[in-house]
Batch of 2 targets.
Target 1
Amino acid sequence: MSPSLPVVALLLVSHSRALAEATEALLRQVTGDSVRIAVAAGAGEGGEELGTDATRIAATLSQLAPHAVLVLLDLGSAVLSAQMALEFLPQEDRQRVALCPAPFVEGAMAGALAAQAGLSLPEVAREAQNALRGKQNDLPGADSDAVRESVMRVDVGMERRCYELSDPAGLHLRPAAELVRVAGEAGMDFWVGRSAVATPLVAGKSLSGLLALELRQGEALCVYSNEALAPDLLTRLDGLFGNPAEALPEVRPQGVVPGFALGLVADARLRLEDLLPVAEAATPDGAERLRRAITVVASRAQEEDILGAQRALLVDPRLQEKLDAEFRRGQGPAHAWAGAVEELAQEIEQLHEPLLRARAADWRDLGRQVLGELLGDPERRTVAEARPSILLVDDLLPSMAANMDPAQVLGVIDRQGAPNSHAAILLRGAGIPYVINVRAPELRAGIEVAMDGATGAVIVAPQKAQVDAIRARYTRSETLALPEEFAGELALADGSHVEFWANVASPAEAQEARRLGARGIGLLRTEFLYLDRWQSPNEEEQMQHVQKILAPMSGRRCVVRLLDAGADKPLPFLRLRREENPALGLRGIRALLACPDFLQIHIRAILRAGHGQDIALMAPMVSQVQEIIELRRVLASCHSALLEQQIDHAWPVALGIMAEVPAMLLEPGSFRGLVDFVSVGTNDLTQYVFAADRGDERLQNLGGAGSSAVLGLIQGLLQGLDVPVSVCGEAAGNPQLALGLVEHGIRRLSMSPRSFAGVWQALRVA
């Protein structure tokens, strides 16, 4: 390589060869020949056709070796083609290539100048991605309004037509441009998005918005309108995308927290803009007033367990950037805050990962809290109804859920929501029935509804027979009560005893477990401290979080599960790369061992929290002996370091594992002498045994935790080990499934404390 050339080269990937070559000429005028610049643009033999070619991109990347290469891309399928091109390269060559999301021309210019200066590939990429900052500062009026105005959300009663995209490139430039042309000639407004309830919609006339949706092959492209879609428009859409995907499953109501509720609806769907003053002047002290309001909310969040995870969002540097832009536009503090928060929430809603998309609610929640403080009405962030009601919400917020009194809030009906959201966790702990994805247009304040939080049924103006049918199911379980002498176990006819342990994730659940007489905590879930965190909580914060949950169970054994990260619980601060199949990827103990610095802090925090308590540690998703050997080494290292630092901590501690990977259950004998106990996670175990996503309702007929395949593995586990074996999955709290587990030899069940009575009754009468 010539010593005069910088180490970073640029590759321009465009649908248009003319555009790429013109951009290269522009760069040459500034950098001369001091930067290696290559073009891989157009489709067809000579690149004269509009499109991109993965083979051409891969060949050009090979020619640029051994340079590090920053790839600038224009629109749509250029990204897909570049990603495909990387797959053609040897692994060592992929590591020297970075695909850059920067704007094509501005990013190329900034990247070329950075490469000319001799910066590294990450530094060149960062300069390219910041290329728009100058233009945004110079043109504050165009800062974000255009984007904000082009995005909306699905409203109840909208007409919809969906198509399954068959093109391997998804919604790329050519069909998107044709859709824009159709929109311009339609004589009516329509919006485009995915089929989910909470999907963001973009105007059909917005090419950039359509491409930003990143709709891929196999996904549903849905056209929405507030009026009936005209026949001629439908004909053109059918011609563009083929026959409508009539078979696409509709989003159905989903029960999240079981329970029966009957009452009048109270509409709690308060939007950020509903809190804003009609007129607000931009004053010199506006930014300082907003800062003080943010500080108050941040200090309040720090004191609350799950809500504490939101505190990290308040110090997000991107939030400050957007606030600065709003103030430059002349906005007052309330309008500036609402605008910045809504923009960030909409960005989150466009992510592919459902768990992360659900975090948009946290942004809006913080928005309401800060506005309440800023405008002198902090209590407006909470829900307070004059009489017991069933609340109707749009994406329930954690702070609302945290302040709900079960005596006042009989149930919650959510038009959006997510089963794994913070709000769902809080309602589950409070025992408030919760149903999500309810789009019935007839739901409104003041009407009577009956709801079943288990099945997801919501009945407007129910008949007595319908109410009686739902109520009967819950009346049977509610009449069940534990005997006063219940001490966490039940004697069986054969002389053995079944122990009742509790699954908890919060101090409130631990208090309930103690009140009901649980033998101990069989599963303390630690992951809820970490959701939404872009930076890892420090050792002190982790210790305090676990300590609060352990306190109510003082004197009783508490099994603390190490952070179960990955799959449906992606944690950004662990820097785990996106996986095609996360359920089979780097999760559980694999993820922890891949992040040794975090693992040491995590274990130290738990050991410190357990000082003076009877705790045990449990590793999730263990599949082979080597993982436990390595974990024991790390555990011993943490103990030695704490001893040397003279820091109080629990020791010795038992170490167990979750049995949820079939490989572990098929060879239990290999773990003898390495583990002190085993707990079966029936949720994941069932999923892996049947190779079926447990969240996919189409696969529910394949079998469950009560199948002979799963029970056979559990029985083999009992025979292959000489240590205590428990079950802590959902099956343990299901009366019928628990009965089957006990019949197959299980004598320790760990479940939600609210399930004790039903399981106790089923076992007692068996």
Target 2
Amino acid sequence: MVDPTDRSRRLLAIAAAVALIGVATLAPVVSAHAVLSETDPQQGGHVEDVPETITLTYTGDGVDEILDVTVTGPDGQEVTGNVSKDGAVATEVFVDVTDAGEGVYVVEWEIQSTDTHVVRGSWFFTVGEAALDPATLLASYEADDRGGGTVDTDPEYGQVLPTGLLYLAVVALLGMPVALVAALRPVADRSDMPRRVVDATVRRLLTGAAVVAAGATGVLLLASVRAAGGTGAAEAALGSRTGRVLLGQVVVAAGAAFVLSARTLRDPADGESKAAGGRAWLAAAALAGLLLAAGQGATSHAASQVGLPVGTAVTLGHLIGVAVWAGGLFAVAVALPAALRRTAPGDRRVAATGVVRRFSALAVAGVTLLVATGLGLTAWLVPSPAAFLRTLHGSVLGVKLSLVVVALGLGARSRYVLLERLDPTTADPRRLLARLPGGDRLPFVGPRRRPDDGPGERSGSDPGPVRAVVGTVRLEAAVVVCVLLVSGLLTATVPGVVASVDDGPGAGNETVPVSAEGVEAELEIVPARRTDRGLAVTDGAPIVARLELRSDDGDPIELESTERVLADHAESGTTLDPELEPMDAPGTYAAVLLFPETGAWDVRLNVWTGEAFLDDSVVVHNEPAGAPDGDGTVQGDSRDGTSPFGILLQSAAVGVGLVGLVATGREGLRIARRGE
């Protein structure tokens, strides 16, 4: 008969899991990772007078700490004034600027976002009524490969190893106590497997995990202080939300390491574990793991993507799922072989069977939670196939998922193949693969074992199946270690939702072929983008029309007279006719166009090369920032809302959650029916 209290606890756990999965799949995407999304003046824009203050606006939870902002004037001198932001965590940074005359102003910035990433970039704007030098403007655009603003999306390589080790330690601290209480100890209490060896082994593992966590969080905290730089770096770093979280993690990890180390030194491996003491050190380890995991959630990509409370909760749920599976796996992989060596040979198979069966139920629950929340996180951070296939974040995520599939395959082999060999009564005659012709010869399924295969299979006299289980569990644990280390690299990369975002207003260059007899010519508009209406540029941003001239033999053509580019706006009757100025490269000329009106401009060459006249034209649409490109996207769009790909992932998360809950319930019923 099922205890009503146990039933209530199970229902409460199921309700909590359903709620967490619902949050992971239904929470809306607010905005992107802390990255520059808007500036005033606009990126690559033109203003008549030098602004007293410029504004940088960031998406997501925004800026935790301003590391550096430098504004350089036309003469190359720094003109940066006071730099400030509103509040501890802000989305806007304000920079006072000293007037240095007309020309190009370059802004270089570096901030630390709330997910611990140091993000840096640059952009420029132009000032004055005087004609802009095309060479200077081209150099600014070429330096800013996004056409008015660059963002450093390289991984924070210094965070990869400490973050990966921290994940490993957190998973161990959270998951090992669960496996010890739910899988290892119950079997030890009902068999000849020595509980003291199990406890001592797990305690040593937890001590090591706490020490690793203390070291990893310490390294990350020092990196945060170093990133602040300058005088008062430590005070600035610890004054930020990220710094306070990291400091709290250091204190928690160091405290857990002290408690567990003291317990391990006081209670030798062969000593008998007292009930109260066993509960105390297990509780200390689990609490430390939970607090560290909460800190990871608070500084995660998701916390910046969908807000601190929801992002932290879902990331915490994901880590708990990983811990129940992977952390428990570590405990089983190390403690089970150590205990079996001190177990009577005839009882080893029974003990191994009990542990594998009970841990399988835990693993199903953990995998359900981690996959469901993982799909929800992916829907937020990698919201499109392009973000998955064309970004470093997506590539690393693909490697991680591949390793997870390998680990799950090994786990399935332990549960559905090796467990059957340990205990033939586990055989399920309804297994579809085994019922197919030749299915029992498949390497994953293995030969069918029946309860009447003889006493030798049931007595434990054959150590082969036990060795196979131990070897497979250890291999699975090794793969999971790789998964967690890869997670460190994944955390250090900029999310796909940011790395794959449209390059912004006016990004990219577009080339227009020019036809003339005896001349090879090419007209390039910098910056511009191609839409279904044709070429488009952003209103308020000067563009460069660059012309390259070559003879049929490939030799550069030098112009002997002043030639021009004509730009006509039919609606207003406005005409521009800037001169083509020679550039450093032979045969290359350029002119700057700043359209005063929005709408369609007919840009036409008016060039005599000495042998041919070039009068090719192209229509360029001068559009306000934020105008639709005609393909459903918007300039500067941060992709608010949910994409079809994201909806697919969210639907899959719900499906996995429901199927996993059913599977977890079935595993629990099987254990209950066997009286284990």
